Every structure is written in C-alpha cells, then in structure tokens.
Amino acid sequence: MSANTKEQILDFVRARYPQAEIDETQDIFALGFVNSLFAMELVMFIEKTFEVTIPNDELKIDNFRSANTMAELVDRLSPARV
Amino acid sequence: MTTLAETAPGILQVTDRKSARAFVDTHIVPYADAYDRQGRVPEELLERMTAAGLWAPFLPRDTGGGGMDLVTLGEVHEEVGRGCSSVRSLLTVHTMVSWAVQRWGSPAQREQWVPALGRGDVLAAFCLSEPGAGSDASGIATNVVEKNGGWVLNGVKKWITNGQRADLFLVFARTATSIGAFLVPRDSPGVEVTPIEDMLGTRASMIAEISFRDVALGPDALLGPSGFTAGMVLTGTLDLGRYSVATGSVGIIQAALEACAAYASRRTVGGSLLKDLPLIQAKLSDMVTDARAARLLVAEAGRLKDAGEASTIMATWVAKYFASTAAARHASEAVQIHGANGCGHDYPVARLYRDAKVMEIIEGSNEIQRITIASQAEREII
C-alpha cells in the first residue's frame, strides 16, 4: 500500500474539512463527516486521482472508513505493477 | 410503421452548439408558443429529436452514443432551452436517467436500457418529488419491500416531467435501510399515470402524477449500490439535472435578450426607438452581461465534470443558482420592455417569464441551493 496514496486521500479529506484533525487510521464515519455529497466527492476523487473505476460491489462502507482502507481499495483496483 | 427518424435524411445531426442552434431555429422556435398553449410537445418533434441524435449524445460510443463531452452537451441544452424550456426539460430528465443507468447500472441493466435510451427508442422520466416532499428528498414516503427475491413498490410521485409520455421511470423509494433507485417500466402492472395540466411554466413538458400500487419488480430493478453509497445515485443524478437546468436558464436569458433586442429596434415611443432610450439600454446591457457570466459558470461546471473533478458539484450549484435567478430577473424585464405586448401571445416573453420562474424551483429550490452553497463554503473556508 502506497504511503503517497494515503497522503493524497488525507489531503483531500483535510481540504474539505480543514478543522478536522485526522490520521490514516481514523474512522471518518465516526467523526461524522460523511453524507451522500461527500461520499460522491470521495468516489469521484479516488477514481480521478488514481485512475480507477470503483465497481458497485466495492462501494461498501468498510472500504471508505479511513485513509488506510481507501488506499487498500485503490491497490486492489489498480493494475498489477511489474 | 416507418418513423420520421428513419425517413428524414434532411434532419441535421446535432453534434455541437452550431448544429443545435440550427435545429432549434428550424424545428422548435417557430412552434414553442403553440406547444405552450397545447400543453404538450408533439410526437413529430420527439421523432425529429431522435433523428438528430439529441436524446443522450454523451453516452459512450461503444453503447451507440456519440461520446459528447459535457461542456458541449451543456451548450446543446442551452440552445434547446433558448427555443423552449419544455423541450429542454424533456432532455434534462432523459439525460439524468440515461446517465444514471450508464454510470450505476449492472452490465445487464446497461445492455437492456442504454442503447435504447441513447437512440430515444425509450424515453425516460426521473421520479423523486412527491405530494409531500420536493427538494427535501429525505422526506419521501414511497417505499419498496423485498419479496420473493424481488421488490414490491408502493407510493405516489408528483410533478414528474415527461411522466405522461415516458416509457421508463427511475423511481426513488425508501428501502429498509436507505433510499434506493429503481427502474420501473411504464407498462408494469400497478403503474397509473395521471396528467397534470395548466402548470404555470414549462407547460408542454407533459408533467404527471404517477401512482405505484403493489408494483412487483424483479431483483434487477434496483439501480446502483445499496447501503451508504445508495444516496450517491440521487446526488449524482441531480447534479447532472441541475447542470442541464442551469444551461437552460442561460438559454432563457439569451432568448429574452434576442426578443428584446428585436423589439427595441422596431418599437418607437415619443419618436424614439426603444433601443435608444438609456433605461432600455441598461436592461439590455444587464442581460448581455448576465448571459455571459452565467454561460461561463456553466462551462466551468461542465469542464470540471469532463475532468472528473469532485468540485463540479459545488460549481454546478453556483451555476444553477446564478443562471436561474438571472433568468427570472431578465425574463421579467423582457415582459416590461414589451409592455402590454409582452403580456399576450404575440411575443415569446410571457412564456419565458413563466418558464424562468420554474427554473428557480426545480432540481433543488434556490433556497436549498443557497443553504448548500453556504454550508459548503463554511466547511471549506471557516
């Protein structure tokens, strides 16, 4: 899992919520950030930034709880590197 | 039966603003006031739109679409909105449903619906509002329950654009855990369509109330993910609808400007042409300025959509809010410039005035837009 991926995700969340103190393990749902708009923005950000398409069956809450789980999702969806 | 779409080689394919303007000037502008009075768009025009490839040209080429970018789509919808907001409204809801199926549909759903939606063989309507819930989507009462491996739908949707004519409804309904989107063919047993006549504006957009009584749907009726992301189907679809309404509002400003420029160049008062009076010049210059500003806001929202940028959602709220309020203001001034002539059927400005008011209400009222814009700004800035 790329540290850079996690940092980019954290940067996006922090840009949307500058007042939040958040790290890669924190559950953003528990912090009360997520509504349908932010969920849409998150999906658009991940698809655009990491050039992946998130299929419906990966749009599960556990994949979006933290920067760590989102980075794992990106890794799973990215073409294997050689 | 041979359709016009198959036998009309003279009908121009709409691929950009220029071809859209030519289509609209030929096939829509001369008849828009008649559509308004008749309260419907004739089948002949729907077929001409099919022949021109107007229904969903943004769909990918591998599905039979034209692969049109969303900036260009916005320009096309602006031109249609310049000609007739009712026709543009039909395009808006069809665009929303076509996009939703393409974006969120399973491979089987896409195969079943997308090519037909792209061609316009199947026309679609977006069913969210209810007698007791409009902009407040969380207040909807229509519900579905899982039964025998499928779904059973009950409820009433109201103010449904193209509900009188559409073949396929995208219905938002409350599930056990969230709000889901369901594809419901019009001919499903238990679906009843009741036309709503004599609306204030967009009178030809064939609005209806639609009742769903124990409508049995298969498991494949659910569109998109369930759970926490189910709301994204609604958010994303409304975003595109809002974009189309914003473009249509720019079209209304442009139509008001063109009508007023023509009238002010012919009409005299006290021996002077209206166009030479400073108060009239002030109104026309404000129309020019707001048309350009609104067009730029819309283009920016479209550019961000094409780039896949999350910030397009905020950009679209701003564009819709600005363009629709400007359209209402300038359509009112257009009636004022025309005087008593503006209140009758001989000029299009009364229709523009009534249609513009609707733009401030649909796809999220402007009060909701302002609350959302402010809360987004607070989130990002404060």
Strand and helix map with partners:
The complex is a heterodimer of chains A (82) and B (382).
Chain A: H1 3-16, H2 36-50, H3 67-77
Helix pairs in contact in A: 1-2, 1-3
Chain B: H1 4-7, H2 17-27, H3 32-38, H4 43-52, H5 70-83, H6 85-104, H7 107-119, E1 124-127, E2 143-147, E3 150-160, E4 168-174, E5 179-185, E6 191-195, E7 208-217, E8 222-223, H8 230-266, E9 268-269, E10 272-273, H9 278-306, H10 312-338, H11 349-359, H12 366-381
Parallel strand pairs in B: 1-4
Antiparallel strand pairs in B: 2-3, 3-7, 4-5, 5-8, 6-7, 9-10
Cα(first) to Cα(last) distance of chain A is 15 Å
Measured by residues with Cβ under 8 Å of the partner chain's Cβ, the largest interface is:
A-B, 25 and 21 residues
CATH architecture of chain A, by name, is: Orthogonal Bundle
Mean pLDDT of chain B: 93
Largest sheet of chain B, if any? 4 strands, mixed
General shape of chain B: globular
> What is the subunit arrangement here?
heterodimer
Please give the number of β-strands of chain A. Answer: 0
Helix percent of chain A reads 40-55%
- Going by helix content, strand content and strand pairing, the class of chain A is mainly alpha
Helical amount of chain B: 40-55%
Please mark out the parts of chain A with pLDDT under 50 across 5 or more consecutive residues, or reply none.
Answer: none
CATH level-four homologous superfamily name of the largest domain in chain B: Butyryl-CoA Dehydrogenase, subunit A, domain 3
Radius of gyration of chain A: 12 Å
Give the total of domains of chain A. 1
Tell me, what is the CATH class of chain A?
Answer: Mainly Alpha
Overall, the morphology of chain A is: globular
Number of domains of chain B: 3
Structural class of chain B: alpha+beta
